[in-house]
Design goal:
alpha+beta; 769 residues; 12 helices; eight-stranded mixed beta sheet
């Protein structure tokens, strides 16, 4: 009820008098007096987030052709707005040829060409499958329209018949190129290209039964979306099926898009709760019954994160994780009978990783591998305390080490059978950088570094199938991302595709001090990788405020020698020293002993080491003002920020936690159980920030999107209630309907960052003293 105007004036006057009693001797602070980011900082945010002026460019949809003798790239059509050409380059000579011009991509009766989001060649390169008009499904654009372009006569045909726009998913040619299979509304379809006939080959798809794609948690935590595979003979399709019945419904509430709130429900399993049932089956491309694969165990308490055909059309290979994710069984299945046999099992007392794909050696590594001749499976395992590469015999299941050194394999690049090498990314004794190494497939000798010593930083490679070439992707803290075509064995640069040198001038305009990398000791003897971003004209004789950017969980590191410091340089320019520490338990390539101590201790180990690192850094750097320390983090970093404020009161004077997990029991089953075990363990209580909220001292801003399907708004609301009950003052920002990324909608990204750093600037005054 609104008060009459006179009463409102009286109440307002009494309120001001009451407040005055608590503010004697304190100068009134107006909006104009409130510290806020500078105009140049705001200009940089708009230029970066809205105009893309600091965004590094990359070759558009590049693909290898002819095993690497050619590569393709999308390029703007000369003089044709909104049109692109698909262009091929001879890898050795650089000779350019337009394979598909933009004018061939305009459907009959339309005036605008198709916008290519992705493309796929048929095996004989006579047809092109085009993905366009895409829509986001959770994280990625995986639903849209598909068209087939026949190069011989330019015929352009839309797939799906009368299907609604943007309703097809994961379309792909059969190996013989005669048909295309795709998912629509949780069922699988096969479309005959010559006859223009569509066959529905699964019929039980619904909101609960999912065929050919995955449930929410499998997509989010096992990175599996495209969930069907053509057999090599084009006769069958192997696919995943998920049954979500019994999985808890979560409801997202939209308060702003209509006069009355609307809701959206989806299945989201909590730790210890009911998971979806998962199985794999094989169905004829003509339709008919499915042959289900016999996988031992409870289908609701295990995962099948990867599956594929071995090479012929008679056998499948599957990875089969137990629910605790500390054992990964590799099974070989008979596609006709469904029977399985165990090839190999990878175990770890904490957790095991999923291999992203299956890579095989053939019987004769000097010749092209025959489909039925797959003899040895590449596998990355920590079974000897390092993430090493092993070859698993298909005949015996025995493992043979091929990377014999005290270092981790970060990522597989290429099994180069003709030349007898395994190429991979590693970085011995240097966890913040990535380099290309190679080892002999027979396991003899020590792996050798291929990346030149002159390229310190982050190096990635897209190698050609024939092992002759690679696209080398390089960046460092002082070098923007570049893309070069190289000869793989010698690392000789053939030509530059993209260099992004224009970003150097933009970066220099931020007037940064050079980024520093160091290590910070903590009490158990570990030395945490650390970066330091200093303000311009830094004077070590003065005291500077420090802002700590934190993540700290097993999903990611923050300290990388890579081109990723633009925002942090802009923050430092405001008058701050910006730092970050990677504690034990982050996925740095420093051995199992570094990564696995966090098992069962998320919220404990990482919080403890982050706090110790702050203290150690302050003690070893006398130019840090320990009375002006702030922190910010997002997602797991938001949780770490809460834990710092609640468990170590007073060490950090102000902090911003965005999209945090306040209660680990409310996050999803796969992630939380992988790193914490089942909720019966006390770690869930001990690791959850909400249970330590009574320790809050200092200024805390919590930000969350009410449409967050990943880390639910619910947990933050529960934390808000807890802080209110404890009588704790704090600040809170709700971003209506935004997801976990806090990026949707005009102006959102700029607003999030402006608010985050305005808040820190308000309570952590910038500049030297």
């Amino acid at each position: 009820m609104r008060l009459p105007a006179l009463h409102r004036q009286l109440a307002s006057s009494l309120l001001m008098l009451a407040l005055a009693g608590f503010s004697l001797g304190v100068a009134a602070q107006t909006a104009a007096d409130t510290p806020k980011p500078s105009a140049q900082f705001m200009q940089m945010l708009h230029a970066w987030l809205e105009k893309g002026e600091y965004r590094a460019q990359a070759p558009r949809e590049s693909e290898w052709l002819d095993s690497g003798d050619r590569y393709t790239i999308l390029e703007d059509s000369p003089g044709k707005a909104d049109a692109v050409d698909l262009v091929a380059y001879d890898t050795q000579t650089g000779k350019r040829a337009v394979l598909v011009s933009g004018d061939k991509l305009t459907p009959s009766g339309q005036s605008v060409p198709l916008r290519i989001e992705h493309y796929q060649w048929s095996a004989d390169h006579s047809q092109l499958l085009i993905f366009t008009n895409t829509q986001k499904v959770w994280r990625l654009h995986t639903r849209g329209d598909y068209w087939v372009l026949r190069l011989s006569d330019g015929n352009l045909t839309k797939l799906g018949g009368g299907a609604p726009p943007a309703s097809l998913m994961f379309a792909k040619f059969s190996p013989d190129g005669h048909t295309v299979a795709y998912v629509r509304e949780n069922n699988l379809y096969v479309e005959d290209l010559a006859a223009s006939q569509i066959r529905q080959i699964t019929h039980d798809g619904s909101t609960e039964i999912i065929n050919g794609t995955t449930d929410w948690v499998t997509e989010e935590e096992l990175d599996l979306r495209d969930a069907f595979r053509w057999s090599p003979d084009s006769a069958s399709i192997a696919y995943w099926q998920f049954d979500q019945s019994g999985v808890g419904d979560y409801t997202l509430i939209n308060d702003t898009d209509a006069s009355y709130p609307t809701t959206f429900k989806y299945r989201y399993p909590h730790p210890g709760g009911t998971n979806a049932s998962v199985r794999v089956g094989v169905v004829s491309a003509q339709g008919g019954p499915t042959q289900w694969i016999d996988i031992p165990g409870d289908p609701r308490n295990q995962y099948i994160p990867r599956m594929d055909w071995i090479g012929d059309s008679g056998e499948l290979i599957l990875q089969n994780l137990n629910r605790l994710q500390n054992a990964n069984r590799v099974l070989i299945a008979n596609a006709h009978s469904g029977q399985t046999r165990l090839l190999f099992e990878d175990k770890d007392p904490a957790w095991v990783e999923v291999m992203p794909n299956f890579e095989w050696l053939s019987a004769n590594s000097k010749s092209s591998p025959a489909p039925s001749n797959k003899t040895d499976l590449l596998w990355l395992s920590e079974r000897d305390s390092w993430r090493h590469a092993w070859l698993i015999s298909r005949a015996t299941g025995q493992a043979r080490l091929i990377t014999n050194f005290r270092a981790d394999v970060i990522q597989s690049v290429l099994l180069d059978e003709p030349h007898g090498f395994f190429y991979f990314i590693a970085s011995p004794n240097d966890p913040i950088r990535h380099y290309l190494y190679r080892s002999r497939l027979d396991g003899t000798g020590t792996p050798e570094r291929v990346t030149p010593q002159s390229l310190p930083g982050t190096n990635a490679y897209n190698a050609s199938p024939n092992g002759k070439w690679a696209i080398h992707i390089y960046s460092s803290a002082s070098h923007p991302t570049s893309y070069d075509l190289i000869r793989l064995d010698s690392h000789q640069v053939v030509r530059t595709l993209v260099n992004n040198d224009n970003l150097i001038a933009k970066d220099n305009a931020l007037d940064p001090e050079p980024i520093e990398f160091t290590e910070t000791p903590v009490t158990d003897g570990a030395r945490l990788p650390t970066f330091i971003v200093k303000p311009p004209n830094f004077d070590p004789a003065k005291k500077y405020p420090m802002l700590v950017n934190v993540y700290s969980e097993p999903a990611a590191c923050t300290v990388h020698d890579a081109w990723s410091f633009t925002l942090l340089k802009a923050v430092a320019r405001e008058g701050y020293v910006v730092v970050s520490f990677d504690n034990e338990g982050t996925p740095a390539p420093s051995g199992r002993a570094w990564r696995k101590p966090i098992y069962g201790r998320i919220g404990l180990l990482n919080s403890q080491e982050q706090s110790q690192a702050i203290t150690a850094f302050e003690q070893s750097h006398p130019w840090i003002d320990s009375t002006r320390v702030g922190m910010w983090g997002h997602s797991g970093g938001g949780s770490a920020t809460l834990n710092e404020m609640f468990r170590h009161p007073g060490q950090v004077q102000a902090a911003v936690a965005s999209s945090p997990v306040a209660d680990e029991a409310l996050y999803d089953s796969i992630y939380q159980e992988r790193y914490m075990g089942l909720p019966s363990a006390n770690g869930y209580l001990d690791g959850s920030p909400i249970n330590f909220a009574q320790g809050l001292a200092g200024h805390l801003l919590i930000m969350h999107g009410s449409g967050d399907d990943n880390v639910h708004f619910q947990g933050t609301e529960m934390l808000v209630n807890r802080l209110i009950a404890l009588g704790k003052q704090f600040d809170f920002m709700d971003y209506p309907n935004r997801t976990h990324a806090l990026s949707e909608g005009p102006g959102t990204s700029v607003h999030v960052n402006a608010l985050r750093f305005r808040y820190l600037e308000q309570y952590i005054p910038p500049g030297p003293r």
